[in-house]
Design brief:
mainly alpha; 9 helices
Length: 183
């Protein structure tokens, strides 16, 4: 797959390098996604402003379940691969859970009830751009208002990430995990 927009190459402009230094682990080259978006300063600044890369009200495991699920549902192999490579072990996602995020329903037996609610919320938002009343009530019983709004924001943001990755034909990062496909 040939990218449609060439990513920036080092040396990067000073402000871009400073942003990369803040968001990338030490010794890891900036993501192709970041280098590509940084080639258009206005888009890069808007992307960073809404990126939700900070610590939010969900714990890291919950956050990764939401992000991985929406990336899988959007068929965004690039971002799926980056997140699974960087965070799956860190948040103790098992191989069965990683597979289930890409291929199974929320009812897979590998999830806690709270995790099933998160996956149901992602699926509802992806499929209908809504959360049905019964699911909202279940979410509200298990999560704070801030956490529910974070789920919605993460789904929206990472759907936008999927638009960029897929439309720009970004090549997978060399260390990225492969996105499993449903059988």
């Amino acid at each position: 797959m040939t990218p449609r927009v060439a990513p920036l190459s080092a040396p990067y402009p000073e402000a871009v390098q400073a942003a990369f230094d803040r968001i990338m682990p030490s010794g890891v080259e900036p993501l192709v996604l970041f280098r590509t978006l940084a080639s258009v300063p206005r888009v890069w600044e808007k992307f960073r402003a809404g990126s939700l890369l900070d610590k939010g009200p969900l714990d890291l495991r919950q956050r990764e379940i939401v992000i991985d699920r929406i990336c899988a549902r959007c068929g965004c192999a690039y971002e799926w691969g980056v997140h699974v490579a960087f965070f799956a072990k860190r948040v103790a996602l098992s191989e069965a859970q990683i597979q289930a995020l890409a291929t199974d329903s929320a009812e897979a037996p590998v999830w806690s009830e709270a995790e099933r609610l998160l996956i149901r919320a992602v699926d509802a938002l992806h499929d209908t751009i809504d959360i049905p009343d019964a699911l909202w009530r279940a979410l509200a019983a298990a999560f704070s208002r801030e956490q529910i709004l974070e789920v919605i924001a993460l789904c929206g943001f990472y759907r936008t990430v999927a638009y960029y990755c897929r439309a720009l034909r970004l090549p997978a990062e060399t260390y990225g995990a492969a996105l499993p496909h449903a059988a």
